[in-house]
Amino acid sequence: MRQLTIAISAVLVMGALASLHVARAQTPGAGGPAAQIIPGASVTTGIAPSRAIGHPTVACSNPKRQVNAMAMPAYAGTVTSSDGKTWAIPMTEEGPFALDYFNDCNGTGENTGYASQLQTVIIDKDGVEITGFIHADNYFELWVNGRFVARDSIGMTPFNTAVVRFRARYPMTYALKAIDWETHQGIGLEYNTYNVGDGGFIGYFSDGNRTGPDWRAETFYIAPLDDPSCVRATAAGRDSTFCSQAVRPACAQKPETCNALHFPVPGDWRTPAFNDSRWPMATTWPPAVVTDDQSYTRVAQIFRNAEFIWTKNLKLDNLVLARYTAKGPAK
Ligand SMILES: [Ca+2]
Ligand SMILES: [Ca+2]
Q: What would the pLDDT profile of 29-38 be if each residue is shown by its tens digit?
């Protein structure tokens, strides 16, 4: 029996080595002279000095809170790439915070009085009034028809579900910035365990429009990377799924050696006129893959037929810009 176990173990190890070999062989130019960084990208290496930034939730006041994630202040920093450019990590913008629909850290959970607490953001006076629910791992900012609507009240953790209300006219262009926040700025790692976090967000709007595979989503910050040349340019946008996303990168042992790729954000990406036809279609993710946090699971029914979306890489793509134009109410 023991011999059999050893034999099986040997086969498993050899199999693992073989697949490791294949994975390395498929990584373009890994370690070789042909290694090339995807056009338009800037490379940074190492951890940025960071500071806590002003978000309303830095500690939980609710003693009955039962969530998986701890309350973690939102930290931000800046990194300088090898080409001399400076990058904010994470790249956030100022503006009013969204009302929480579920927050069991500062609140007691589901906010059933949300309708009377919401203020309507007037984007187009002659538009229709829309109420939207958004859950993001970890953070979002929302623009509609080029106008800022609201941003997530919690940058890092715990998780929360937000509600917004706005008046806008069709065609209605949603531009949503989503950030898989980190606690070690610049290398895409979090907590004392240097864990590779993951992202994902879901949104449902009261005219029936919702996040799904018909949205577009492109990544603008990819980390942590052992070899930054693993990210490829494809006809359908950037693709980081050739990188070692299934395992913790080797650089996590020496975080100061982790690399990141940054891409300039187009100045007009939020506007209806922006041409997003070269961005990849969004990838849908099963809810259980994105989160088991009760700030989603306890209110999941309000998202109806919406689906969690992100790019093809839930772990390494940390700044994701997503767009969708609704021509009218969804049937
Ligand atoms: Ca959040
Ligand atoms: Ca995350």
A: 444 445 799 9
What pLDDT shows up at residue 69?
53
pLDDT digit string, tens, across residues 236-264 = 899 999 997 667 889 999 999 999 999 99
- CA distances in angstroms from 78 to 173, 184, 185, 218, 290, listed in the order given: 30, 11, 8, 21, 27
| Beta-carbon contacts of residue 119 (< 8 Å; ≥ 6 apart) | 165
pLDDT of residue 14: 38
Protein residues with C-beta less than 5 angstroms from the ion ligand 2: 137-138, 180, 197
d(CA 102, CA 107): 8
Q: Is the pLDDT of residue 128 over 90?
A: yes
Q: How far is the CA of 55 from the centre of ligand 1 (A)?
A: 10
H/E run at residue 51 = strand 50-52
Structure tokens at 119: 């203020």
Query: Average of pLDDT values for 28-57?
Result: 78
Ligand number, closest to the Cα atom of 55: 1
Higher-confidence residue of 230 and 30: namely: 230
Tell me which amino acid residue 79 is.
V
Contact 180, 317 (CB under 8 A): yes
**Dihedral angle computed from the Cα positions of residues 31, 36, 42 and 45, in that order, rounded to the nearest 10 degrees:** 0
Angle, CA of 261, 311 and 158, to the nearest 5°: 85
**Rounded distance from Cα 156 to ligand 1 centre (Å):** 6
User: In the Cβ-directed half-sphere of 310, how many Cα atoms lie within 13 Å?
Assistant: 30
